[in-house]
């Protein structure tokens, strides 16, 4: 079905919003170091990965974009942080519907939303915690993975409540579940690394031919593969990935 003109217009407006959102709060001396797909990284983004710092939305978006290239599938949608933020906080029903429909959520089997506890749309990077909300169509469930004892529960439920009605399951209620077995961080800054590590495991699980446990879906994989050791390595892995992408750009 052809997307209407208004939907295309709203999508272009949202793309512009994402660009503005990415550049809010940036100093004029913060040089661009990489443009990858639709993601722009600057020097300060690289500095974040060089020390024990909270990951920002651009680093997470870059890794999501990279995973989309590693696991290419029309059934998988990794939603950029800026778009997930807008979906979580938009209060205008008409604007919301006009924007969300071009995402074609009813055609997706696996949809991943990064969740941030910033609820002020006028402030970029104002949040202090990342978590992950994942929709799996086969089980018709949204699963929330939070590495800090459910700190983002309210934000995750807010996003779930807003977007669930657009998933296309008109004959059944879309369930919500907190994964109580989600690996937990031991500091105040690695939440973004847990998000990147978990989404990588889920994408690998989904594309595997061994998806047989619908009841526990990817839970055992996350529990086994997302450990303090693997998460501690993620910072250098992403840093090296960026450097590799810079060398070929």
Summarize the entry for a quick read.
By secondary structure, this protein is α/β, with parallel strands linked by helices. The protein contains 9 helices and 7 strands.
Description:
- The protein has helices spanning 5-23, 43-49, 57-70, 81-89, 93-100, 153-163, 191-207, 219-225, 228-248, and strands at 32-36, 39-42, 76-78, 110-116, 130-136, 141-145, 175-178.
- The protein has 249 residues and is an alpha/beta fold.
- It has a five-stranded mixed β-sheet with strand order 3-4-5-6-7, with helices on both faces. It has a two-stranded antiparallel ribbon with strand order 1-2.
- Residues 1-13 and 19-27 have low confidence and may be disordered.
- Derived from helix and strand composition plus strand pairing, the structural class reads alpha/beta
Instruction: Tell me the overall shape.
Output: globular
Proportion in β-strands: 5-15%
Largest sheet: 5 strands, mixed
Global Rg:
17 Å
Regions with little confidence, pLDDT below 50 for 5+ residues = 1-13, 19-27
For the secondary structure, the number of strands is: 7
Average predicted confidence as pLDDT:
87
Alpha-carbon distance between the termini? 36 Å
- What are the secondary-structure elements, in order, as H or E? HEEHHEHHEEEHEHHH
Q: Give, in spatial order, the strands making up the sheet with the most strands.
A: 3-4-5-6-7
Relative helix content: 40-55%
What count of helical segments does DSSP give? 9
Short descriptors:
globular; disordered N terminus; two-stranded antiparallel ribbon; 249 residues; 45% helix; alpha/beta
